[in-house]
Amino acid sequence: MISTKVCGVTSVEDARACVELGVDRLGVNLVRTSPRLVDVETAREIVRAVEARAEVFVVVADLSIEEARALLEETGAAALQLHGAEPDRVVAELGDRAVKAVRVGDTADVARALSVPGSLVLVDAKVPGALGGTGVSPPLELVAQIARARPTILAGGLIPDNVGDAVARVRPAGVDVASGVERAGEPRRKSLDAVARFVSAVRDACRQRP
């Protein structure tokens, strides 16, 4: 079964509701430029609220290994989702408690996604000046190459109406959605109807896979 992750969660209320609807993973954003920014205390509260029912990834960029380890300890999160220019050494030292995000736009980016350490890689669209969360889709044919070689989380441009096709084309280990399940004009709130439809579409696509 493909895992479903909802990123950019900003409240305990939305976190609990997403888990009740069948979401496997949540993302909380500590990147200062993000409209979905939360503080460390909120991240910790969300981790505690969902307990063992879902994994929580903390989205960060360019932390040192010491800062990364301290943040994992402070929040209790399952992993850090690394969106900066972190060296492979940092990713490798964090092991399974790090998921490196790679922005893919061409074949050179495919090679990069295949080379980064870790048991998972997250692939997002390559948008100049943005670390992620743009609502733009990466080239699915390139992501499929990555997913055939290693467990891959597909992010970027996913909505309830297209995630089934994306799953069929890429066959990822997981999918990640943020803006695609938000309330219109409210990047800090999730549309629970959209979350429910997204989870249902992923499950339907999984059932249809040969």
Explain this structure to me?
With 210 residues, this protein is of the alpha/beta class. The chain is built from eight helices and ten strands. The strands form two sheets. Strands 1-2-3-4-5-6-7-8 form an eight-stranded parallel β-barrel, surrounded by seven helices. Strand 4 (79-82), helix 4 (88-94) and strand 5 form a beta-alpha-beta unit. The chain is globular. The mean pLDDT is 95.
Describe, in short, the structure shown.
The chain is α/β, with parallel strands linked by helices and about 210 residues long.
Give the helix/strand layout.
Layout: E1 3-6, H1 12-20, E2 25-29, H2 40-50, E3 55-60, H3 65-75, E4 79-82, H4 88-94, E5 98-104, H5 107-115, E6 121-125, H6 140-149, E7 152-155, H7 163-170, E8 174-177, E9 182-183, E10 186-190, H8 192-208
Parallel strand pairs: 1-2, 1-8, 2-3, 3-4, 4-5, 5-6, 6-7, 7-8
Antiparallel strand pairs: 9-10
Shape: globular
How is the biggest beta sheet arranged?
Answer: 8 strands, parallel, barrel
Instruction: State the helix count.
Output: 8
H/E series? EHEHEHEHEHEHEHEEEH
Output the structural class. alpha/beta
Q: How confident overall, as mean pLDDT? A: 95
What's the end-to-end separation, in Å?
A: 12 Å
Radius of gyration: 16 Å
Helical content stands at 25-40%
* Strands ordered across the widest β-sheet: 1-2-3-4-5-6-7-8
Strands, total number: 10
**Residue runs with pLDDT of under 50 for 5 or more positions:** none
* Residue share in β-strands: 15-25%
